[in-house]
Amino acid sequence: MMTQRHFDEELADLKTKLLRMAAQTEDQIDQALTALVTRDSALAREVIERDHQINALDVEIDEESIRLLALHQPAARDLRLVTTAMKIATELERVGEVDVQFATSTA
Length: 107
What we know:
The protein has 3 helices and no strands. It is mainly alpha-helical. The longest helix has 37 residues, at 2-38.
């Protein structure tokens, strides 16, 4: 079952990307709030400049999810994992946009 093993590795990679995106979003929130509270415009600009990283991960996760759906046609638990990853990535990207709005009010 080399194919299933390969698919499992791809799912693990998708989870890792999603966790990385969540961690980056969490860091962006922290940095945006710090910039807002301290009125640190340089930090606010850094938050704004890093926004593209979260956006890129959102696109990457969506593309990877669609590829997994198309090539492997997962069922049950794996299907839920892939579709939920897409939903979570979209929500994290939205949270990232709020960070930029906070930072923009400081910059």
